[in-house]
Amino acid sequence: MNPTIRSDRRPCTGGDDNAAGTSGRSESYVIEAAADYLDAMIQTHAEAASRIGDTDYARTLAELNRARILGEAALSALAMANADASSMLDLLL
User: Fold this and answer.
1) Which stretches of 5-16 are DSSP H helices?
2) What is the pTM for the complete model shown?
3) What is the DSSP string of 2-61?
4) Which of 22, 64, 68, 83 has its CA 20 to 30 A from that of 45?
5) Average pLDDT along the chain, 93 residues, taken 10 residues at a time
6) 3-state secondary structure at position 11
7) DSSP states along 56-87
8) Where are the domains of the chain?
C-alpha cells in the first residue's frame, strides 16, 4: 500500500486512515484542554491576587481608622484632664 498524506499532514496507510486521523485530532483536543486549563488557572490566580490586594487595602484602612479613633480619644482625654486641672486650680486658689 502506498502511504497517502491526510489533511492533518500525517502519513498513513490505507487501512489505518481513521486511526491516524483520530490520533491527530485527539492530540489537538488534549492541547486545547491544557490551554483552557492554564487560562482558567491564570484567571483564578489573578482573582486571588485581586482579593488579597483588596484585603490588604481594607486592613490598612481599618488600621488608619483605629489610629485616628485612638488619637481622638487621647485628645479628648487630654482636654478633660486639662479642664479638671483648671477647676482644681480654681478651687485651690
Assistant:
1) none
2) 0.47
3) --EE-TTS-EE-GGGHHHHHHHHHHHHHHHHHHHHHHHHHHHHHHHHHHHHHHHHHHHHH
4) 64
5) 45 48 74 93 94 90 95 88 70 62
6) strand
7) HHHHHHHHHHHHHHHHHHHHHHHHHHHHHHHH
8) 4-92
88: its cell numbers: 482644681
Q: Which residue has the cell 478633660?
A: 80
User: What cell was used for 32?
Assistant: 486545547
C-alpha cell at 49: 491576587
Four-residue CA torsion sign, 82, 83, 85, 86: positive
CA distance 48 to 57: 14
Distance CA 22, CA 8 (A): 10
Rounded to 5°, angle at Cα 12 from 7 and 17: 75
Instruction: Give the residue among 27, 29, 2, 25 at the shortest CA–CA distance from 11.
Output: 2
DSSP state of 90: H
